[in-house]
Amino acid sequence: MVVDRLFSDARLADLYDVFCPWEPSGDSGFYLPLVMSAEAVLDVGCGTGMLLHRARDAGHTGRLCGLDPAEGMLRQARRRSDIEWILGDLGSVGWSQQFDLVVMTGHAFQVFVDDDELRASLAAIRSALTDEGSFAFETRNPLVREWERWTPENAAEVTDASGAVVRLEHQVETVEGDVVRFTTMFTSPSWERPQVSRSMLRFLDADSLSSFLSGAGMTVKEQFGNWTRDPLTDTSPEIITIASPRPTTGLP
pTM value? Predict the structure, then answer.
Protein backbone atom coordinates (compact mmCIF):
# COMPACT_ATOMS: atom_id res chain seq x y z
CA MET A 1 0.00 0.00 0.00
CA VAL A 2 1.24 3.46 -0.92
CA VAL A 3 0.26 6.00 1.73
CA ASP A 4 0.35 9.67 0.76
CA ARG A 5 -0.73 12.98 2.20
CA LEU A 6 -4.24 12.76 0.76
CA PHE A 7 -5.05 11.08 4.07
CA SER A 8 -4.78 14.52 5.66
CA ASP A 9 -8.34 15.02 4.38
CA ALA A 10 -10.72 14.26 7.27
CA ARG A 11 -12.91 11.92 5.22
CA LEU A 12 -9.94 9.93 3.96
CA ALA A 13 -8.30 9.88 7.38
CA ASP A 14 -11.37 7.99 8.57
CA LEU A 15 -10.49 5.33 5.97
CA TYR A 16 -6.76 5.09 6.71
CA ASP A 17 -6.97 2.18 9.14
CA VAL A 18 -9.31 0.34 6.77
CA PHE A 19 -6.84 0.58 3.88
CA CYS A 20 -3.86 -0.04 6.20
CA PRO A 21 -5.05 -2.41 8.96
CA TRP A 22 -3.04 -3.77 11.86
CA GLU A 23 -0.86 -6.66 10.65
CA PRO A 24 0.54 -8.85 13.45
CA SER A 25 2.67 -10.78 10.93
CA GLY A 26 3.86 -7.60 9.20
CA ASP A 27 5.18 -4.21 10.21
CA SER A 28 2.80 -3.91 13.17
CA GLY A 29 4.15 -7.07 14.78
CA PHE A 30 7.72 -5.94 14.09
CA TYR A 31 7.50 -2.48 15.62
CA LEU A 32 5.28 -3.11 18.64
CA PRO A 33 7.89 -5.14 20.61
CA LEU A 34 10.45 -2.39 19.97
CA VAL A 35 8.05 0.20 21.33
CA MET A 36 7.19 -1.93 24.35
CA SER A 37 10.89 -2.30 25.26
CA ALA A 38 11.59 1.47 25.20
CA GLU A 39 10.71 3.88 28.00
CA ALA A 40 10.21 6.96 25.79
CA VAL A 41 9.10 6.62 22.15
CA LEU A 42 8.61 9.11 19.31
CA ASP A 43 6.56 7.98 16.32
CA VAL A 44 7.36 10.29 13.37
CA GLY A 45 4.52 10.33 10.86
CA CYS A 46 2.29 8.60 13.40
CA GLY A 47 -0.86 8.89 11.27
CA THR A 48 -3.95 7.78 13.19
CA GLY A 49 -1.74 6.67 16.09
CA MET A 50 -2.51 2.98 15.73
CA LEU A 51 0.94 1.80 16.86
CA LEU A 52 0.99 3.97 19.98
CA HIS A 53 -2.63 3.11 20.79
CA ARG A 54 -1.72 -0.58 20.69
CA ALA A 55 1.30 0.01 22.89
CA ARG A 56 -0.87 1.65 25.58
CA ASP A 57 -3.39 -1.15 25.28
CA ALA A 58 -0.54 -3.65 25.75
CA GLY A 59 0.53 -1.96 28.99
CA HIS A 60 3.21 0.57 28.01
CA THR A 61 3.50 2.98 30.93
CA GLY A 62 6.24 5.32 29.68
CA ARG A 63 6.23 8.33 27.39
CA LEU A 64 4.58 7.91 23.99
CA CYS A 65 4.62 10.81 21.52
CA GLY A 66 3.19 10.96 18.01
CA LEU A 67 4.21 13.59 15.42
CA ASP A 68 2.30 14.11 12.17
CA PRO A 69 1.70 17.04 9.76
CA ALA A 70 -1.89 16.02 8.93
CA GLU A 71 -4.65 17.37 11.18
CA GLY A 72 -7.12 14.82 9.84
CA MET A 73 -4.90 11.95 10.95
CA LEU A 74 -4.27 13.43 14.38
CA ARG A 75 -7.99 13.89 14.87
CA GLN A 76 -8.20 10.10 14.80
CA ALA A 77 -5.10 9.68 16.96
CA ARG A 78 -6.44 11.99 19.67
CA ARG A 79 -9.15 9.51 20.55
CA ARG A 80 -6.61 8.62 23.25
CA SER A 81 -5.59 11.45 25.54
CA ASP A 82 -2.91 9.52 27.45
CA ILE A 83 -0.45 9.96 24.55
CA GLU A 84 1.23 13.17 23.35
CA TRP A 85 0.08 14.25 19.89
CA ILE A 86 1.93 17.01 18.06
CA LEU A 87 0.87 18.58 14.77
CA GLY A 88 3.98 19.29 12.69
CA ASP A 89 7.08 17.74 11.22
CA LEU A 90 10.70 17.28 12.26
CA GLY A 91 11.50 20.81 11.16
CA SER A 92 9.04 22.25 13.68
CA VAL A 93 10.35 20.53 16.82
CA GLY A 94 13.61 20.63 18.74
CA TRP A 95 13.94 17.70 21.12
CA SER A 96 17.30 16.97 22.74
CA GLN A 97 18.00 13.40 23.90
CA GLN A 98 14.43 12.80 25.09
CA PHE A 99 13.63 9.47 23.41
CA ASP A 100 14.99 5.94 23.67
CA LEU A 101 13.34 4.99 20.38
CA VAL A 102 12.26 6.88 17.26
CA VAL A 103 10.19 4.99 14.69
CA MET A 104 8.99 5.82 11.19
CA THR A 105 6.49 3.27 9.88
CA GLY A 106 4.40 2.97 6.72
CA HIS A 107 7.39 3.82 4.51
CA ALA A 108 7.12 7.40 5.75
CA PHE A 109 10.90 7.76 5.47
CA GLN A 110 10.55 7.78 1.67
CA VAL A 111 8.82 11.18 1.63
CA PHE A 112 12.24 12.79 2.23
CA VAL A 113 13.06 13.36 -1.43
CA ASP A 114 15.49 16.25 -1.20
CA ASP A 115 19.01 15.67 0.19
CA ASP A 116 18.91 18.73 2.43
CA GLU A 117 15.50 17.80 3.84
CA LEU A 118 16.70 14.27 4.50
CA ARG A 119 19.87 15.43 6.25
CA ALA A 120 17.93 17.93 8.37
CA SER A 121 15.36 15.30 9.34
CA LEU A 122 18.01 12.76 10.31
CA ALA A 123 19.82 15.42 12.33
CA ALA A 124 16.57 16.15 14.20
CA ILE A 125 16.08 12.43 14.88
CA ARG A 126 19.65 12.07 16.13
CA SER A 127 19.14 15.05 18.41
CA ALA A 128 15.92 13.57 19.81
CA LEU A 129 17.58 10.25 20.66
CA THR A 130 19.55 9.41 23.75
CA ASP A 131 23.07 8.12 23.06
CA GLU A 132 21.83 4.60 23.81
CA GLY A 133 18.67 4.95 21.73
CA SER A 134 17.58 3.47 18.39
CA PHE A 135 15.99 4.70 15.18
CA ALA A 136 13.83 2.07 13.45
CA PHE A 137 12.30 2.56 10.00
CA GLU A 138 11.75 0.85 6.66
CA THR A 139 12.01 1.71 2.98
CA ARG A 140 11.09 -0.29 -0.10
CA ASN A 141 14.01 -2.06 -1.75
CA PRO A 142 14.59 -0.23 -5.06
CA LEU A 143 15.97 -3.39 -6.69
CA VAL A 144 12.49 -4.95 -6.51
CA ARG A 145 10.96 -1.99 -8.43
CA GLU A 146 7.64 -2.13 -6.60
CA TRP A 147 6.41 0.99 -8.39
CA GLU A 148 5.96 -1.09 -11.53
CA ARG A 149 2.93 -2.66 -9.80
CA TRP A 150 1.37 0.71 -8.96
CA THR A 151 -1.19 0.57 -11.74
CA PRO A 152 -5.00 0.95 -11.91
CA GLU A 153 -5.21 -2.80 -12.49
CA ASN A 154 -3.85 -3.33 -8.96
CA ALA A 155 -6.25 -0.93 -7.24
CA ALA A 156 -7.51 -1.61 -3.73
CA GLU A 157 -11.12 -1.34 -2.60
CA VAL A 158 -12.63 -1.09 0.89
CA THR A 159 -16.09 -0.46 2.32
CA ASP A 160 -16.47 2.57 4.57
CA ALA A 161 -18.64 2.92 7.68
CA SER A 162 -21.66 3.96 5.57
CA GLY A 163 -21.37 0.89 3.37
CA ALA A 164 -19.99 2.76 0.37
CA VAL A 165 -17.18 1.20 -1.65
CA VAL A 166 -14.04 3.34 -1.94
CA ARG A 167 -11.40 2.57 -4.56
CA LEU A 168 -7.72 3.58 -4.33
CA GLU A 169 -5.49 3.44 -7.40
CA HIS A 170 -2.07 4.70 -8.43
CA GLN A 171 -0.52 5.71 -11.71
CA VAL A 172 3.23 6.25 -12.01
CA GLU A 173 4.15 9.38 -13.95
CA THR A 174 7.95 9.41 -13.97
CA VAL A 175 10.93 7.55 -12.54
CA GLU A 176 13.99 9.78 -12.37
CA GLY A 177 16.98 8.28 -10.61
CA ASP A 178 15.74 7.12 -7.21
CA VAL A 179 12.63 9.35 -7.18
CA VAL A 180 9.23 8.08 -8.31
CA ARG A 181 6.45 10.56 -9.11
CA PHE A 182 2.93 9.18 -9.15
CA THR A 183 -0.75 10.06 -8.97
CA THR A 184 -3.09 8.71 -6.31
CA MET A 185 -6.86 8.73 -6.83
CA PHE A 186 -9.70 7.80 -4.48
CA THR A 187 -13.14 7.27 -6.00
CA SER A 188 -16.53 6.13 -4.76
CA PRO A 189 -19.96 5.91 -6.39
CA SER A 190 -21.31 7.87 -3.41
CA TRP A 191 -18.92 10.83 -3.93
CA GLU A 192 -19.52 13.77 -6.24
CA ARG A 193 -15.92 13.77 -7.46
CA PRO A 194 -12.66 11.82 -6.95
CA GLN A 195 -9.88 12.90 -4.61
CA VAL A 196 -6.59 13.16 -6.52
CA SER A 197 -3.04 14.11 -5.58
CA ARG A 198 0.45 13.92 -7.03
CA SER A 199 3.26 12.64 -4.81
CA MET A 200 6.95 11.77 -4.83
CA LEU A 201 8.80 9.00 -3.00
CA ARG A 202 12.51 8.28 -2.87
CA PHE A 203 13.87 4.73 -3.17
CA LEU A 204 17.30 4.74 -1.54
CA ASP A 205 19.44 1.62 -1.61
CA ALA A 206 21.12 0.20 1.48
CA ASP A 207 24.49 1.87 0.82
CA SER A 208 22.89 5.28 0.36
CA LEU A 209 20.86 4.85 3.55
CA SER A 210 24.02 3.98 5.46
CA SER A 211 25.79 7.03 4.07
CA PHE A 212 23.01 9.44 5.07
CA LEU A 213 22.77 7.88 8.53
CA SER A 214 26.51 8.17 9.00
CA GLY A 215 26.39 11.82 8.03
CA ALA A 216 23.84 12.36 10.81
CA GLY A 217 25.99 10.63 13.42
CA MET A 218 24.25 7.25 13.32
CA THR A 219 25.27 3.75 12.28
CA VAL A 220 23.30 0.75 11.07
CA LYS A 221 22.94 -1.71 13.94
CA GLU A 222 20.62 -4.24 12.27
CA GLN A 223 19.06 -4.56 8.83
CA PHE A 224 16.45 -6.99 7.52
CA GLY A 225 14.77 -7.76 4.22
CA ASN A 226 11.29 -8.55 5.52
CA TRP A 227 9.16 -8.49 8.65
CA THR A 228 10.29 -11.96 9.75
CA ARG A 229 13.83 -10.57 10.12
CA ASP A 230 15.37 -12.50 7.24
CA PRO A 231 18.67 -11.09 5.93
CA LEU A 232 18.52 -8.33 3.34
CA THR A 233 19.07 -9.59 -0.22
CA ASP A 234 18.63 -8.16 -3.71
CA THR A 235 15.13 -9.68 -3.87
CA SER A 236 13.97 -8.58 -0.41
CA PRO A 237 10.87 -6.38 -0.57
CA GLU A 238 11.98 -4.13 2.28
CA ILE A 239 15.07 -2.52 3.74
CA ILE A 240 14.20 -2.51 7.44
CA THR A 241 16.83 -0.64 9.41
CA ILE A 242 17.59 -0.20 13.09
CA ALA A 243 20.24 2.49 13.55
CA SER A 244 22.00 3.71 16.67
CA PRO A 245 23.68 7.03 17.42
CA ARG A 246 27.41 7.33 17.59
CA PRO A 247 27.92 8.73 21.09
CA THR A 248 29.63 12.08 21.35
CA THR A 249 32.75 11.73 23.47
CA GLY A 250 33.56 15.39 23.86
CA LEU A 251 37.14 14.72 22.77
CA PRO A 252 38.76 17.15 20.30
Answer: 0.93
